Amino acid sequence: MTQQHKNWYENHASTVLDYPFDFERYIEKRLREIEDLDERKFAKEVLLEGLGKVIRCTEQKYKELERRVRDEIRIGDNRYETVMTIVKRDVYDPANGTLYPVDAMDLEKNRTMGIQEEGEVYGGTVYLELSESGMEGFVPEKIFPGTVRTETGEAETLFHIRPAKRYRQAVEGLYHIFLDNHIPWETVNTGYLDRFYDIWMCDPAKNGERIPIQPETEDVTVHFGGLEPYVHYDMIPLWNMEWLEFDSEDFMLPALDGICYEHAFSLDSREERDGYLVCSNEDIMEIRHETDRIIVKSKKETFEDWKVLHMIQTKTIQSLDYTAALLTNRRKDSFGRRSLEENGVRLMTRAGLMRRLMELDVEKWIEPEEIQVCDKEEYPALRSMDWFVGEGMFPMDSRRTLLIVFREKQPGYYLNDSMMRFAVSCLQQEICEYRCVGILTDGAWENETKGGDRL
């Protein structure tokens, strides 16, 4: 990406066009076609120094006009955007008011008791710094040798690992909280969460059958062989959410039927941009959001320890040794987005789809390069990051395939396929006519449609 392109993406005022035209690069390419060096030098001076100044001046005037028009079109700030990262447990900063553990139990000293499952013994959690294709070897049937330290010494045993359920349950629970509060759902980037795996212990005397043993300590060592450099212990995921508790106020607003009570959760003294979602329970009949408060309807006159999810929208602070990148579901502001959102229009054109993909916060890793419509199913479906939502009205097997080709900006980086899966999942939530799939390429995409149609 040239410096001019980079500046364009960082300058949100320059967004009338979905893609900027790099006239300097275009002129340079055309100049290479001039074989005579003297003519090439003269043409370069005339075009870049003369015509270039005119083009830059014209662009600047259009930017000023665009900024004036853009400021007249406003879309409401999203109070429910998510931010996620990972850190080592021992560097977690409790004073950081913008990032909190996805699972508060990760900070407990005795974490084992909370993660036990019937018939199995928990032996720890690991983070796999592998691509999604590289993680395919980590299936429940895969057995790894290792040792567990007891009071009488080390005992050899076998282990198997599987994805950590508690993090997936946290995202699915978040979805249901959005539904209960009647807030539109936006796909959460689970690229980090999908790489956490729990270790479970087996009895080696039974040929790998998962018969649990009970260790007397948590000292567990697993031998992952050649994958050892990619396995990290004591990592925990963080996100921009915290749980708050609130009790019934000294006053209640009687409902119209005279039977129920309406309790008010005030937002007056809280950060204006932050989002607040009430966690529903059996005592709550209705949740209603108003400008400066949330009204909770209940038959209970008094209550305590009801929960509110606080979603922090201020700039995320990365404390000391918070080195992992931030994964967000934020959409970049643009003139095109503002005008279309204002009119409630979603264009099913190549430019419209490209614009929606470019709005996603994935530009560090990938960028969309091509979109095709195919009848055949030679491209396998990706695991959706919205697995809990369902297919909707039209079954996936009855839809045509919408293929999105992404170019890797850092070829081989382990998060690239997760960023692609996030982008495809976001687009799939907006499109019900097609089955959205994606593929990655580290170079120019050769347009072999295989019966497909380019949008």
What does this structure look like?
The chain is α+β, with helices and mostly antiparallel strands. The protein contains 8 helices and 21 strands. It has helices at residues 3-10, 23-31, 37-72, 112-115, 165-180, 335-343, 350-359, 416-430; strands at residues 83-88, 100-101, 122-128, 144-150, 153-163, 196-202, 220-222, 231-233, 235-239, 241-246, 253-254, 261-266, 275-278, 284-289, 293-298, 306-311, 327-328, 366-374, 400-408, 434-441, 453-454. It has a 6-stranded antiparallel sheet with strand order 7-4-5-6-3-8. Helix 8 links the parallel strand 19 and strand 20. Helix 2 runs antiparallel to helix 3 (37-72). The chain starts with a helix and ends with a strand. Mean pLDDT is 81; it is low at 8-16.
Percent range of helical residues: 10-25%
Give the strand order, joined by hyphens, for the main sheet.
7-4-5-6-3-8
Give me the Rg, rounded: 27 Å
Characterize the overall form.
globular
Largest sheet data = 6 strands, antiparallel
Q: For the record, give the distance between the C-alpha atoms at the N and C termini, rounded to a whole number.
A: 24 Å
Determine the structural class based on helices, strands and strand pairing: alpha+beta
Low-confidence stretches: 8-16
Q: What attributes characterize this protein structure?
A:
single chain, about 450 residues, alpha+beta, six-stranded antiparallel beta sheet, 8 helices, about 25% helix
